[in-house]
Design a protein that fits this description.
Oligomer: single chain
CATH topology: Rossmann fold
CATH architecture: 3-Layer(aba) Sandwich
CATH class: Alpha Beta
Number of helices: 5
CATH superfamily: P-loop containing nucleotide triphosphate hydrolases
Strand order of the largest sheet: 1-3-4-2-5-6-7
Order of helices and strands: EEHEEHEHEHEH
Helix content: 25-40%
Number of strands: 7
Radius of gyration: 16 Å
Distance between the termini: 16 Å
Structural class: alpha/beta
Strand content: 15-25%
Number of domains: 1
């Protein structure tokens, strides 16, 4: 897939407020500092499409970007910000939950996992909730340039072993680096296959 157009289409905190035009949605979510905005910018070839920030909780709304006038790339708020006030954290969690559970146009949710660390309990719990509700999702391991190829494969194998304790069948898994651009074609090809299957 070649992305020739990527434009901001709107922000919302409720499903009823999202862009009126109905198109398939490919959404991205992850924990703080997992590299979500950098990945979105890398995929679209637009360095400032999604704003990057070192401040956890910067994204509090659901951001829609229109891609090639055919589908939406959706930037969801992150989850698991321990340093945020409880009220704000609960509000963000509700925004995420409503979109994931109630948007009729969600075709795939990519959950981003930092490849440098073992998958955390908060990630495992989040994935379990997706599975319980039948939400289609895949995993993208980020920041893969920070590890050598052997260390990276060992880490992915370890995460797979952790997930296999509760999952009979593992979700689709991809690896990426926003710095080097690796994984871009694989991710876009996977998205293209999803859209063609709709």
């Amino acid at each position: 897939m070649k992305i020739s157009q990527a434009t901001y289409a709107g922000s919302s905190t409720r499903v009823a407020q999202k862009p009126a035009r109905r198109l398939p949605e490919i959404a991205f979510i992850g924990r703080s500092n997992v590299g979500k905005s950098s990945l979105i910018n890398m995929l679209t070839g637009r360095s400032r499409l999604a704003l990057t920030s070192s401040t956890p909780g910067k994204t509090k709304a659901v951001n829609h970007f229109l891609i090639n006038d055919k589908w939406y790339l959706v930037d969801l708020p992150g989850y698991g910000y321990a340093k945020l006030p409880n009220k704000l954290r609960d509000e963000i969690a509700e925004v995420i939950r409503e979109f994931i559970m109630e948007s009729p146009d969600l075709a795939m949710l990519f959950v981003l996992i930092d490849s440098r660390h073992d998958i955390g309990k908060i990630d495992i719990d989040f994935l379990s909730e997706l599975g319980e509700h039948g939400i289609p999702f895949g995993i993208i391991f980020t920041k893969t340039d920070k590890l050598g190829p052997v260390a990276l494969q060992n880490q992915i194998d370890r995460d797979c072993a952790i997930l296999s304790q509760t999952w009979e069948e593992l979700p689709p898994m991809l690896a990426s680096s926003s710095s080097s651009g690796s994984g871009r074609e694989e991710i876009l090809s996977f998205i293209e296959s999803i859209l063609k299957s709709l």
